[in-house]
Specification:
15 helices; alpha+beta; 388 residues; 54% helix
């Protein structure tokens, strides 16, 4: 768990597909867009970036500038940590956005706000209230002391509850304390406008409790970011090994023992070069939400893993089988520790479906996985769909 921030630059060739708002922003700043042919066969417009900072991606996600991110390489495992950091950055960004959105909907229903609206019908604070950040920023700047006091009054009981929760490990306590503060630090100005307006007034305790309860819920959801990134890399590794074995049989005259060839570092490098020449790449695509106006889909994340795979039906059957396995006996860490051949095949990656499904249920996150193969090509597409 934990927010991304240890690495300032990631090195991955990203295709960033822009939303309508993102397109308007970049064109308004005289930045030309590039037309991309995506792995799903669609032509999209966006920008290409490499290297990039996780913060820049996070900022664009939170501004609803991005609709899709795609990365394609023959050897994604060489950039394992960068891929995992990017995946976690995307998940955290969606959670911050969703937390901000849900919290505002909760706050405007609090009794003190409802009472204020009845007394001030010309200055309503409700779902339809829109005050530009440019107007709110100087107002809140003058209330910096109030913001700090409000933040303290919200976080101190949360931190006390975390530190006294015996079910958390010391590492989990540290992570949850960090995450709780990060959720508040990324809260939108409209929420802070409501909080500071009613801070220390009669009825504020309901607002305080609402924030703390939602913080607890979203801290639990944030732990899923790690599970997703680990699962993703297991699936990427399996896809790459499948590609390596296929090209090894071609280059080495139908050799049966492909593992001995694939595990040889020098030969492996040559095989990856051949895959790159053949343009047989592994592609990950993150499709974000449904736009700010898409009711019920703002917290949706659709991850797709594309690969040419002749064993489509085997993959589909394996996913279905592993999803039904009982995983309550061992945690993910225990599985890694106890399984002697954990990295020998795709079994570990498939087991992650079960672990992730269980984690999502605990955090009230809807998760479904689908493996399909479009009739128009020989791609295998693994779909991981989340609704936060």
């Amino acid at each position: 768990m934990g927010d991304n921030g240890k690495k300032f630059q990631l090195n991955l060739p990203l295709k960033v597909i822009l939303s309508d708002g993102g397109t308007s922003h970049f064109l308004g700043h005289n930045i030309n867009l590039t037309r991309f042919h995506m792995a799903d066969g669609k032509d999209e417009k966006g920008i290409s970036i490499n290297p990039f900072s996780p913060k820049s991606v996070q900022d664009m996600v939170m501004l609803d500038y991005i609709s899709k991110i795609e990365v394609s390489m023959a050897e994604l495992t060489a950039f394992r940590q960068d891929v995992m950091d990017l995946s976690k950055t995307i998940v955290y960004s969606l959670l911050y956005k969703q937390f901000d959105r849900v919290l505002y909907s909760t706050l405007v229903k609090c009794d003190v706000v409802v009472k204020f609206n009845r007394a001030n019908p010309r200055s309503l604070i409700d779902e339809s209230t829109k005050i530009p950040d440019a107007k709110l920023r100087p107002i809140l700047e003058k209330k910096k002391t109030v913001v700090a006091l409000a933040k303290k009054s919200i976080l101190e009981p949360v931190w006390k509850a975390i530190m006294t929760n015996q079910s958390y490990s010391p590492e989990e306590r540290n992570v949850y304390i960090l995450m709780s503060e990060k959720f508040l630090n990324r809260l939108g100005l409209m929420n802070w406008h409501v909080i500071t307006q009613f801070f220390q007034k009669e009825g504020f305790e309901q607002i305080n409790l609402s924030i703390r309860h939602l913080l607890q819920e979203y801290m639990e959801k944030s732990s899923i970011a790690d599970h997703i990134s680990l699962l993703l890399m297991e699936l990427v590794t399996n896809n790459e090994n499948t590609n390596l074995r296929k090209v090894a049989k071609i280059l080495y005259n139908g050799i049966e023992d492909t593992d001995s060839v694939v595990l040889n570092p020098e030969i492996r490098e040559k095989l990856f070069a051949e895959l790159k020449n053949r343009h047989e790449l592994v592609t990950i695509s993150w499709q974000l939400g449904g736009g700010s106006a898409a009711i019920g889909k703002q917290g949706r994340l659709h991850i797709m893993l594309f690969n040419k795979d002749d064993q489509y039906q085997l993959m589909k059957d394996t996913v279905s089988d592993k999803m039904s396995n009982d995983t309550k006996k061992r945690s993910i860490v225990d599985f890694y520790r106890d399984e002697p051949n954990a990295s020998s095949g795709m079994d570990l990656g498939m087991m992650y479906f079960s672990y992730l499904d269980e984690s999502c249920k605990k955090a009230n996150v809807k998760f479904e996985s689908i493996v399909n193969q479009p009739m128009s090509n020989d791609l295998t597409v693994i779909n991981l769909i989340f609704n936060f």
